[in-house]
Amino acid sequence: MKIAVGSDHGGFDLKKRLIDNLETDVDEIIDEGVFDKSPADYPDAAERVALRVAGGAVDFGILICTTGIGMSIAANKVDGIRAALVCDIERAGMARRHNDANILCLGARFIDFDIAVEAARIFISTDFDGEKTDGERHKRRVNKISLIERRNINRQEKK
C-alpha cells in the first residue's frame, strides 16, 4: 500500500510524527510537503496529494493543517476525491466504510497525537462496505456523489 501525506506549516509537526509512526503499516509514504514550519498555503499540499490519489499513484492520502477544514475543502475540489475531516477513531472507520473516503484530513490543533495515529491506521486498513452484499445503500450514495461531480464538470465544460 502507498499513501501520500501533506501538510501546511500548521500541520507540519503532526505530519512528521505521523509518517514516523506509519512507516511499518504501509509499503511507501510519499511526503508531499511542507518540509519545515515556514508559512505555507494549505491548498498547495491538498492539490498535490489529491492529484496523486485521484490519478491512482497512491491508495490513500492524509492531509493535515491546523483545523483540517481547509485541507478538506481544497482536496474535495479534485474530481474523484472524497476527503473526510476526522476527529476520532470511530469517524475514521465510518468515513471508509460508509463513504469510501480516499483522503483523511486531520486538524493538528484539535486531535491528540495517539488518536491521530490510530485514526490513520483505521482509515487505511478499513474496507468500503459498498463492496459487501449488505452495503448497497453505501454504494448507491457514493455513486450519487460521483454523479454530482460529473454533472458539475459537464456544466463547466459547456460554459
SSE layout:
Blueprint: E1 2-7, H1 12-22, E2 28-31, H2 42-54, E3 60-65, H3 69-75, E4 83-85, H4 89-99, E5 103-107, H5 113-125, H6 136-158
Parallel strand pairs: 1-2, 1-3, 3-5, 4-5
CATH superfamily of the largest domain: Sugar-phosphate isomerase, RpiB/LacA/LacB
CATH architecture of the largest domain: 3-Layer(aba) Sandwich
The backbone outline, from C-alpha atoms, is globular
Query: According to CATH, what is the class of the largest domain?
Result: Alpha Beta
The fraction of residues assigned to DSSP E strands is 15-25%
Number of domain modules = 2
Low-pLDDT stretches are none
- Report the radius of gyration as a whole number of Å: 15 Å
Number of strands: 5
> How would you write the strand order of the largest sheet?
2-1-3-5-4
Q: What's the order of the H and E elements? A: EHEHEHEHEHH
Q: What can be said about the biggest beta sheet?
A: 5 strands, parallel
Helical content class: 40-55%
Q: Structural class, from secondary structure content?
A: alpha/beta
Number of helices: 6
How much is the average pLDDT? 93
**What is the end-to-end distance?**
39 Å
CATH topology of the largest domain: Ribose 5-phosphate Isomerase B, Chain: A
